[in-house]
Amino acid sequence: MNDQHSPPAGDDGMPEFGPYPPGPDHLGFTAEEIDTSRPHPARMYDYFLGGWDNYEVDRVAGDRVIELHPQVRDSVRANGAFRRRAVRAVVATGVRQFLVLGIGIPTSPNTHEVARQSAPETRVVYVDSDPIVATHARARLANDPGTAFALGDLRAPKAVLDDPVVRELIDFDQPVGLLIGGVMDFLTDDDNPAALLAAFGATLPAGSHLVLSHSTYEPYEGYAEGRVDEAARAHVEEVYKSATTPIALRTKAEVAALLGPFDPLEPGVVRVPLWRPDGPVPGPQELNNTIFYGVVGRKG
């Protein structure tokens, strides 16, 4: 366990977070139970972001992905910026509660922090099926009033929606912001992700919004020199096959097919830097190197 990054120390010389002791309210692994024999997608994503919650095995796998796609770090940062813009846009419609599915290891600013910049009364429940993520999320996200974490699986919509933690904070008679983290990238076609999103959408009232981003392998349509590098794609998929969960890359059309009852808001399904940018727009080559699509949909 000594190969984990050490978090920055606070003024008293102690780490700003962790370790997380077990207890009756502790959902997740103790330090001794964390599997560091295989790379973990959430810890790899944390590594791409320059975070501290990863191990040598995650960094080795992450470096293999970076070698194949050097722009992956810029892509994950662009994805985070999209989510922040999307949350602000949804809050601007009057939504004051969010259900966040598949959060990964929490990285500030989180959804509740972004939403409360303009609407301090916003309530947020974070949900993830991974006990490793739960270890971090319970420690960092569940202590603020109006914010909670529930251990649940996107593949079991009814169980998530009926969870007492979710029901305590989310009023399903009022519009909800449903934010899907990177979890869709790890659902296969056999999981029927469109049906899963439709099940969540069926419970939410009119005026609810979906925020979705998803990784892709296809080139940006506005870049004439863009090509699918099948060898690089196969190698990236092999890296994740060696991890705890394989990755499922999808095309723009496949991402659009996941929206179910949510009608996409302008500009639709686009490379994440193009969704209502609040700064300079990248050029075609940079967009081609951005591996995420983003979309916000509204239930009518």
Instruction: Write down the secondary-structure element order.
Output: HHHEHEHEHHEHEHHEEHE
Mean pLDDT figure = 81
Give the count of helical stretches: 11
Rg, Å, rounded: 19 Å
Low-confidence stretches: 5-32
**Strand elements, count:** 8
| Alpha-beta classification | alpha/beta
- Strand % is 5-15%
Shape: globular
Helix content class: 25-40%
Distance between the termini: 50 Å
- Biggest sheet overview: 8 strands, mixed
Describe the structure in brief.
The protein has 300 residues and is of the alpha/beta class.
What does this protein look like?
The structure is a single chain. α1 (41-48) packs across α2 (56-68) and α2 (56-68) runs antiparallel to α9 (230-241). The protein has 300 residues and is of the alpha/beta class. The protein is 34% helix and 13% strand. Residues 5-32 have low confidence and may be disordered. The chain contains 11 helices and 8 strands. α8 links the parallel β4 (177-180) and β5 (209-215).
